[in-house]
Amino acid sequence: MSEFTQIPGIYNVPGAYTEVQFTPPDTVFAMPVRVLFIAIQQGLAAATLYQNVSASRMQATMGIGSSASIAITAFSAACPGVAMDVLALPPGAGAKASMATIAFNGPATASGTRALYVGGQRVTFGVSSGDTPAIMAANFLSAYGAGTTSTVLAQTGLIASATLSPDGKSTVANSVTLTALEPGQYGNDSDVRDSPYVSDAVAGATLDITPAGGGAGAPSISAALGLISATWYTDIVTLLYDTPNLQTLAQEAQRRYGAMVKQDARVYAALRGSYGSLLAVTAQLNSMLLNLIGAQNPMWTQAAIAGAFAGQCCMSLNIDPSVQLRGLTLDAVAGMGPQGLDAFIPAQRNVLLGSGISTFTIGSDGTVSLERVVTTYQNAATGVPTGLPQDIMVPAIASRVRYDFNDYVVTTYPRAKLAQNNAVSANVPNVVTPKTMLGAWAARCKLYETNGWIEDVDTLAASASFSIDTTDRNRLNAVLPIKPIGALIVDANILQVQG
To answer: Which residues have C-beta within 8 Å of that of residue 427, sequence separation ≥ 6?
Structure first.
């Protein structure tokens, strides 16, 4: 029986009075979603938190082609309409911007259209027979767009300009330099390549590309965490993906996951590297809240793949934390995946998954689809290897169950009294007993089971225990076992052909 909270117990004026009380729904509580992007901002003096942002706002604030704006655009394509903030950090001490150069050779002996790929973006320019290297360089620069207003810059984060001579006093006529907008070592992962298609070649119009390099510096996220310590972010996308910062964010996520903080957050990052280098990174990580996707020599920018990856995970897990993400497409990077021998074969992906790297597949049309999303959790607290990947759904289910049951208790019993099961007051209105809470837990578990989040509820709910603390009569202790539902990851069959 509910108690009155608005109508006095003694009231002498005749009339009918009704107070409205809202009861908890018969469905699970929706978990709020708020996303944080962590990125470098050129010229920034101190760490700054931008709230309720959009890609266009970040272009205006952090610059066209900023990694934050690229990531937000890719994230929003997969998961639109959610609240987003950006934690911007100044470049680290001694930071240097990465640079790639394109040297054009000639003259051209035919006419046609030449094409290159920068950060996965196709850049084409016309070539006429007899064009000199200097003319081709100028035409490419015109097609790309010079300076910080380039439309290609908005997708690549690379500023195009004529290459300076070694003394810096003049330009090299046949060469173009692509410079990372944001200083730091991350710019070394920028991709610049000649088109692999024969139709994009023009006789005599060849070129030499010096890959991106020279970028240095990685600011530490640690000192800036104070700016976000009081805000609950369900998803954190870091565009600062060096190992020390990933370790810091894994620790921060674990702190937020604690019972007294209850700000569960999943951290996402994208890595670029060889099979061996990816394994070397994850060997230093071990977190059920850190999710990495890795690729060897892809065309995409790291910001775009990180945003697309996080966006699909956020969207899917918020709708249903128990559904695997296999087959979800990363549309923002379609056609930009690793090509040919750069794509990992199944045997390599098997090891990568077991080492905490999420994997993807590439369709014949260039579609990039998630294959399996795992956390970097590899070793138990005792240091013993788990032997199996931990899928992202496992901690996601635990987070949703905890959030829902906590909200249910607070909403249903905001002013309840607490008594033992056999107390005389046990049946008095607004009195809760361990038995009451056991029943409530069992009912919520049935709801989670109906949603397909957990299984074996009849057995496990019955084994849950609630008891009043022996030293604090105002505290109810409980042990609540659940079994997350499995996922059809491997379908193993024996096909017996009869003779």
So the answer is: none
Weakest mean pLDDT among 67-76, 364-373, 408-417: 408-417
pLDDT above 70 for 1: no
**Cβ proximity of 288 and 251 under 8 Å:** no
Instruction: Tell which residue, 438, 349, 345, 451, has the closest CA to residue 393.
Output: 451
Q: Across-strand partners of 125? A: 114
Number of Cβ within 10 Å of residue 131's Cβ equals: 25
**C-beta separation of 162 from 141 below 8 A:** yes
Q: Give the separation between CA 194 and CA 337, rounded to whole angstroms.
A: 15
Burial of 1 (0-12, 13-18, 19+ CB in 10 A): exposed
Distance CA 214, CA 232 (A): 37
Average model confidence (pLDDT) across the chain: 95
For residue 391, give the DSSP letter: B
d(CA 83, CA 35): 6
Please give the pLDDT value at position 149: 75
Confidence of residue 202 (pLDDT cuts 50, 70, 90): very high
- 206-247 pLDDT per residue, tens: 999 999 999 999 999 999 999 999 999 999 999 999 999 999
Residue type for 21, please? Q
State how far the Cα of 337 lies from the Cα of 342, in Å rounded to an integer: 9
Which amino acid is located at 69 in the chain?
S
Q: How far apart are CA 62 and CA 41, in angstroms?
A: 6
Burial of 458 (0-12, 13-18, 19+ CB in 10 A): exposed
- Helical (H) or strand (E) element with 209: strand 207-213
Residues written for the chain: 499
Scored b (16 or more CB within 10 A) or e, 288-301 reads: bbbbbbbbbbbbbb
CA pair distance 117, 191, nearest whole angstrom:
8
